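User: Last request for today: this protein with MRU, please.
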Amino acid sequence: MRVNGHGMRTIWDTDGVVEIIDQRFLPHELKIIPLETLEDARAAIADMKVRGAPCIGATAMYGMAVAMRNDPSDASLAQAQETLNGSRPTAVNLEWATRECVEAVSDISASKRADILFKMARKNCDDDADMCSNIGDYGKTLLDEIAKYKGGDVINILTHCNAGWVATVDWGTAISPIYKAFNAGMNVHVWVDETRPRSQGARLTAWELEQHGVPYTVITDNSGGHLMQHGLVDICFVGTDRTTATGDVCNKIGTYLKALAAFDNDVPFYVCAPSNSIDWDMQDGLKEIPIEVRSGEQEVGWITGRDEDGIIRRVTTMPDPKKTRNDAFDVTPRKYITGLITERGIANASRAGLLQLFPEKA
Ligand code: MRU
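Assistant: Here's the final one, the structure of the complex with MRU:
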């Protein structure tokens, strides 16, 4: 997608030099940093220099490639997988990516491993962009239907967190249908949930929509239900970090509350779910999905932003920033989900629905 008018992805390599956008500095600074070691990749994921399930998966693949370049032994391969898998627990794309790498090279001689994994990491980036583009095309068909009854009136879409292109390699998942619709000249507007505590909506979704020229308004995390009650939301699109084989969805904390409000107000609630974020081994999202708990003091107790003089400051609004709790994800049970938009089409949020699109997983 576009940054200052130029095409860009979140992660890439030039002749083996891997680089990422360090998302912690957006929207105030576009900072590019290299990933030279396994530890660089681990820290990039754990410290949320990269985030968003597909982008985490892409970074993990490059992390495996870099690790093999520095030490291609069997011990190093196992160590790289364990280290990366331990960097963040919730997004299944991470385990998927490292498993793909281990399966691809464990029977291959050490000297060839890095080369194979770099090729895989590049192909994964292209495949990820294609999957997200397909999700955008399928999601746009839902916006086309809404456009039929709205005439030329604006279509209001609500999204939570950032499931746009900076959460993937390119296009995004939940924002991809919006880009497709906007590019086709449709009259769309996005309600962007601020998404405390790390404000991925206010910082990242707003930034990428601004870069692309898509109309948007940032709202507090408490506003969505009210807007739905007043007919101001036509459809919700959100992302997923892990979707069970039965259609439960784990996504950024607060997604569940939006799904409840949408259900109560008959607003369609769609989850944009690339197949590498589906965990075919899990059945019950609430019981089985590991939920990341991050530092409450660091992320809830303190807020970072730019002041009126352009200086980045960290401030607290609380009497005691230590008295906080910070669960980073929640689970939306399938009964609240209108559909799952995958790269192969739109499925009911159920085992049968998913298996119709992915029969090879039966
Ligand atoms: O903690 P984050 O910023 O990694 O959480 C991101 C989300 O919850 C996204 O909605 C999800 O990863 C889908 S990204 C296409």
